[in-house]
Records
---
Amino acid sequence: MKAAPFAYAKPGSLREAFALLERHGDRAKLLAGGQSLIAALNMRLATPSILVDLTAIPGIDGIQLRGDHLAIGALVRHREIERSELVAKHAPLLSQAAPHIAHVAIRNAGTIGGSLAMADPAAEWPACCVALEAHIVAASPKGERRIPATKFFKSLFTTALAPREIITAVEVPVAGANTRSAFLELVRRRGDYAIVGLAAHTQLERGALTRLRLVYLGVGDAPVSAAGAMEKLEGKRATPEAIAAAQAALEQDLSPAADLTHSAATKLHLARVLLGRALAALVT
Amino acid sequence: MDEFFEATITVNGKAVTRRVQPRQHLIDFLRDELGLTGSHTACEHGVCGACTVRIDGQIRRGCLMLAVQAHGCSVDTVEGLTDSGELGALQQEFHERNALQCGFCTPGMLLTAQELVATQPDATREEIRDFMSGNLCRCTGYQSIIDAIEEVIVTRRKGAQP
């Protein structure tokens, strides 16, 4: 289908973008890579009166190492993250997750800022940012604030962003020598939305899992931290008993809804399978 | 809302300036305004890959990009890349191996495969499958397409050896 008519503006600064949002309010939609938005426009699931194209705004792209964190600009494309040596070295979870995002032609266009703002519960970056305890930097006419990713994703397509706020960057803590991460997804076909996915991140202290984060995608309205499973494993080695206890705990942690082809029970089973695989990957 | 924007886009090496409506997809601009009907339009929501074109050297979905977003960009289509000879080896191998039946998906397949050949010259068969996963074909069953791309990659690799 073709999109319904809309106006288009390409501001050259954040200030101009804020002015456009002020003027058009909820009738405006922000456009970055457009890989979700334009599909939604084509299907007329979204009918904004104006698109505000953010891609000419300076200073909100690029990947930089800044002390203890990696700053990834909102306009950085998925493919750029996938191929970045800085990311591979300092935030390997993101390098592991990137190839799972759709297909190359889409990764060449879609942006991390767009994905975070969209907050699709089956998307990869939201789960990764929660697992990494990243901060999302949002700008508004009142200034800038850093929102913990753990508090950013509220519900289906719903974030902590205020109506006139624009994501400018995401700040990811840099990995240390003991940091281990794994990103796994089960899909029916390569590039499809995940049936279940898992972003796992830990500090491995003499074989023990510490500060373990297990964050699922595709099993709820937002990224889901498996609190019970994390508690069962924290400070422990990934022994068969510990893994089994954590897998059992997922029953309380997750309540996935069935989709067209998988029952809730299947999804829960698959979440357990992924947990086993992720723990094996973390300790090898 | 009959607002128009003037967009200047370099298409297959030639700068064109046209007044476009914001809602017009790049793929429709190329096909309807410029008559470049080699790139196809099918699913119109980014799933099938038939509309794959190249923007500033990288493949994109032509249905998930507005013409107005391409202002200032360089766009290559199957027509331009055929004329320049860049797709020659792939086209020859697709022909040899019957890697197309109806041909509808072929322009998108060729553009995607060309980005693979250029960026991953050591790609394995598994990696080829992976890279091509965003382009759907309803006729061939994919085997012959993967075969053709693999052949081009293997031949190049042999040629690159001293």
---
Amino acid sequence: MVTIAPAAPVQAGAAAPGNTGRQSRIKRNLSGYAFLIGAIACFALFMWYPMIRGFVMSFQRTRRGETTWVGWDNYIRILDDPSFWIAWKNTFYFTGLALVVGFVVPFFVALLLNEFRHAKGYLRVLVYLPVMLPPASALYLFKYYAYDPSEAGLFNAVLKSLNLPTSEWMQSPAMTIPAMVLASTWMNMGGAVLIYLASLQNIPGELYEAAELDGAGLWKRIWHVTIPQTRLILALLAMMQIVATMQLFVEPLILANGAGTQDSATSVAYLIYQHGFFQNDLNGAAALGVIMLGVLAVFSGFYLRLTTRNES
Amino acid sequence: MTRTLISSTQLKRSRVRYWTLLAVVVTVFTLVFIGPLYWMVTGALKSAQEVAQTPPTLFPRDPDLSNYTAAWEQLNLAKLLFNTFYYAAGAVVFQLIFDTAAAYALSKLRPAFGNVVLGAMLATLMIPAMVLIVPQYQTVISLPVIDVSLLDSPFAIWLPMVANAFNIFLLKRFFDSIPEELMQAAFVDGASPLRTLWSIILPMSRPILGVVSIFAVTAVWKDFLWPLLVMPHPETRTVSVGIYTFAGGIPQNVVIAASVIAALPTVIIFLIFQRNIMSGLTSGSLKG
């Protein structure tokens, strides 16, 4: 019989049974965690611990340095505040409208760009350019130039030259949210367009060919090939967008100076900011955060069930 | 070129329609996406009277840089820009060191419970940032156990940037694609894990490290609420926060001029690295 002796020294460190094996395993774990320690410490300090602390804080009250358990008091106080309901109404309105506009528009833009054989790179750069602007810069542009309520404003000048009625924009409570959706879509749609474009390029061309042979027109091909083929990424991006838009904050802060005309811009995130950093009510802000997380969790659970049921 | 919604033969047949549509789309997109930027840059070259005039002028009557110089001096933009650069550069260094090390450990060294750690990191992607803002701020003003305040310290920006699950995931997936045999060969030669990372893994990972660095710079540059909270002192502010805190008391055109200057660095970075940025964005989100 041939012995396997020559192979043994090479494997000794890695695979030999018994004592040495356990030692090398311990060594590997030690060096593994030595590499992980920095990231773990930062996650613990700035993610995991604050998650727990926020939850705990929402059931406490700190007065003059003394912290006591108060049960649901913070939640009751928050729910009693009329601006809580206004903020949710505004946030839902913004999220819904941003979903309709910021979800459908990028999809069709991507569909269109994908058909072009020329200037594709240029158009892609254009769409993504606003994403690179600091939001504060872009929002001052909208606030001072585009949404100027006089006829010297960019949008009003365009509307007037087309003989359309002009608007008061941020000064009209009815226009506040649509104007914020417009600004936010302009600033953020580039990312969604690029992701759609990449997923459109993964659709096998034979599917379109087969559909065409079956006599399917343009819309039928979109409906029966494009949408089913990109469904997963569509669902994922819709979810990500809802989570992002529910945190609406910079737009009201800069465009509407916070609350806006007749509270038309107050968002839940803005309320958290107000309670936490101006009303000296960190516990109320923590409770608002837990409520927001709860709403998003219920929403994602519902959404997940909806999309997985369609799958089967 | 793979087949898309409309076949190439069909496009060739309706060539006029294709070129008209392309021309319309290029014009409309240029107006929609460059138009406002043009308005911003030239608007800041106009006088206050000219901006308030109806109908607005397409070209500034006599372009004047005084709004830009006023913004530069009154807002102390040099200091604000330096601060933001400093925070961004530090964020890149911290992320590259700690996130790369973590991704390497999770991908190649695979210690016990590595998957649990990865799961706990990825779970933070589901938590909206606004929910954590208050307890995170509490942590910064008094770190647990040692009771040190990080307010106005650059670490208040650098350390939270390390806790970025998306980057760790991106790096880990890249490292996963590096063949295991290379690692084994290095270990057999007696190389330590650190040495393997440094001389085998990192040189192969230049593209992904570039993507992560660009993301870190733009994230710091675009961030608003966090630096507003943790950098309250005028000397430590970032450029976005500086413009916001000054905006109430200075003329609109000066605010716009400052906004243009604040946007320039990221726009230039984007125009130089657009290919890397776009490929990083789509690879990170698609092939999970």
---
Amino acid sequence: MGGEEVGVEKATIICRCNDVTLEDINKAIEAGIDDFELLRKYLKIGFGPCQGRGCLLIAARIFARRMSKSLGDVLVNYSVRPPITPIPAKYFTTVSLAFQGGEEVSRGGKS
Amino acid sequence: MRILIIGAGVSGLFIAYELLKRGLKEVLVLDAKTPGYGASLRNIGCFRSSFTSREHVLLMKESIAKWLEIKRDWGVFIEQRGYLWIARREDTLDVFRELAKFHNSHGVPTRVIGVDELSSREPYINTSIVKGALFDPTAGKMSVIEVFTELYIRVKKMGGIIIPHTPVERLVSSGGIVKSALTPRGEYAADVFVVAAAEGSRKILESIGVNAPIEPSPRHPLVTEPYAEVIKSGLVIDWDTPGSPHITQTQHGSIILARDIKDEPWTPLNSQRHDAFEKIIKPLSELYPFLRNVNVNRYWMGYYDMTPDHHPIYGPVKPFENLYIAAGFSGHGLMMAPITGVLIADWILHGRPRISVAENLVLERFETGRLVKEIAVVG
């Protein structure tokens, strides 16, 4: 219960993309979020460029332990979304650059 | 009185919230999956009142007033930043002038703006390809997840019981009264039933011989990594490009890009399409050239639960005495949700809604042929 323990929770980063700490997860659970998908979305765990590869299982295990649920129950409605890794939008913009003064040439999807 | 609401989406939860606020003690909400699994957390969080039917305009005005109360009382991110419908062609501005006339006559202060005002509202827009815009100052955007989570927590704290992973397979009725809902987890009896299960409402109501004509139409939004604020408005819509590509930016900084892409109704939500990226990004990167420099992070699907006249189905389900519906919002469920809660609670507790145009939206309209007309569905 001492100050040290709080410090550890605050310093323990679970989701690096969005800087979500163990303290954030604990606070969200205490606030009444008892559904993992809701907690995940609320804290934006897995919303960053890692797509959850770095954080999802850690967060799910913490949640499962706190709520006395199995990992399978916690992850039951999780869906992986494409793209697997962030894609530069420029690969889909084979635009005529006339209106832009040609500041950058689109490479299209090939090079 | 025990109320059973089927569907823990934003509509079902606002109905529960309103009933609990008015002193009801036994409010149960069942969900087939997890809370907000459907359109409630898949939509892009925008709202407006610039519709083209009297029903939508009047209901949405009241709903926005409610959203602003919620912003004040809950401290959540809801911002009235306005919508911009962009004209690429000169003659589109004439259409906008007509639309503004209709909106103004219903008390919605939309107006046509020129390129100068447009570029002061949207500094990153490519002014060389736009002619002006229709501006709706009543419209805006919100943090959907924050609002939904806050609602969920409040319903629970007020004593509402929300049970996930409990799909209703059928209703059981006798003598014009619904008695119970059957689920794989057992039978739930109640005095009043509310079906707020989006496209799933159809199957639930079929079990007692009621036809609710809802067809889920797939939508395809993309979201980028977070960036500093570049899209100032609630939503910017490219009116002159087929499928009305539209763009907004979340409080977190991610930019959401979307467009209506022709797709079959009922296409499963895991049927993402490789052509969506090009179809969505290309027209929007003409409007916002900086988009060529951003990364797309995620792509998900969600449904617009369309009804034949693109308006929700509200109110009592005849011939049953204790059955109500709130579904088929046709892409506007989130923005209408606070007023949905008020209206359905009115119907249950007082027999009629406080806003009388809502009575035009009862399920019977599809049988009597008294459909409501709406032409601008996007956003």
---
Amino acid sequence: MAAYKGHRMNPDKFDKGQLKLYLFVVPLALITGLPIVYIFFHAFKPMEELFAFPPKFITTHPTLDNFTQLFKASRSAGIPLSKYVFNSLLITISVVISSMLLSSAAAYAMSKLKFKGRDLVFNLNQIAIMFVPVAVMIPRYLVVEFLGLTDTYWSQILPLIPLPVSVFLLKQFVDTVPDSLIEAAYMDGATELHVYFKIIIPMIKPALATAAILVFQQVWGNLEASNYYISDEGLKSLVFYMNTLASANGNNVAGQGVQAAASLLMFLPNLILFCILQNKVMNTMAHSGIK
Amino acid sequence: MSKKKTWSKVARKSQFNKAGYAFLGPYTVLFATFILAPVIMAVILSFTNFDTIQFPSFVGFLNYINLLTSDEVFMQYVLPNTVKYAILVGIGGYVLSFLLAWALANLTKWPRTILALILYSPSMTAGVAMSVLWKIMFTGDQTGYINSWLMEIGLINEPIVWLTNAQYLLPIVIIIGLWSSMGVGFLSILAGLLNVDESLYEAAAIDGVKNRFQEMIYITIPSMKPQMLFAAVMQITGAFQNGSVSTMLAGNPTPGYAAQLIVNHIEDYGFIRYEMGYAAAVSVVLLLIVQIFSKLSTKLFGEND
């Protein structure tokens, strides 16, 4: 009789054995979370607390001054903050949706379909992941200019849709979908389009959610397009605006509060998206019928 | 039955051609235009002398020869720093990601979700936005948080000038690297762990697996190889391609090249000295290094064994 019965991941109830794990995870989580909490406090600090000595971690008299200063700056620059927000939303939503669609289709083809050139594209995709982005900045600018995309929304959308990392991630998950399932669907007369929408997509939802978060972060925080491809101020993105403002205010203590406020505002959408999608990201596919 | 199966596979092959291209095509077009073409251009540039203004002139392998024979900064500082950083943040971060994900997978849902969110949160903060934070933390006089705390608990008597002191700069950069290394690889490991078929564990217990450690080695890791590989590649590329922390803390070049990583070296030549050809050559060398390591991890976690 084996004494060890094997344990289950994702337990339903708390038991004493989990205490050890908490002892390991919680301190690390606290250290990790501290800087974020700090940014949060700093964003609400009034002037005299920013200058306080010795420096205080916790804000005692929270104020919105830093945020109002952010909004004021945008009004005096001529382009309302809402325009930057609109640009960023338009760009981010277009990229995330198209990227998810194209990447998952590509991942499906790379993993489950057989045709000439498939492995070549996959290998090139792998190599591209490993090439440093800084090295391709200038060549990519030349491509964007050659295609006549400078000063359009397209230049901020099209180059960001192909994200080799997310194709790789999705392909790794499509690999785990059993062939027998697809085989059975073909027996029932399904086409590839059916298989893609009815089997692949539902089964790789956790990976899709993860990839969506990844793409969102890339686009939302992307400075390259606004910096190099766009000269029309009205087409630039929110992160560009926040960044210029932050660096303009960067070198004095008073500016730190404004910077922290800007960082917090840019961080929040990431956080919200993650909270919405976390269920998908964390959730087990074990419940979705892959056995 | 077996006859039917062969038939269906043949049918798959002949009709799959078209479907394959249709599914892969749109991505490939954008990928080729905006990623592959620039990468190829960069590789070509590495064989030229290009100051970004005049048309590049072909110089053969000169950039590579210079890099290997006469770039003292690269050999003395950049390469050793990068190796140290890659080992500590790459391997250390990977092991830490796995252990944390494994611990989280053994917790109940809500604590797990919240803890995972906290651990992942550094990856959500854009690098640029966080520069303000680290600068304030490591301010070199007594108004800096770290200095102030260390003095309060009596560990140091005088404030340490963290960011210009060659002794501390690289360790600080490594710590920040580890801080933000619970990224998408960590999430994929977590998803993979939660996804392992539970009946495997029961079967393994019957077959004589005695504890959780054996279970981890014999059951868990082998059945989530795709996720382990993805995380490994992410960690490797991340470890070698990270450099923004060094420059944002201490400028480029970093004082005494103390925290100069390969990426900073590329930026130094490409965007400060405008020697794009040389910068491209360094990028190609970096690509080769990353390739070697990811080949190794493919060997470890590849499907073909």
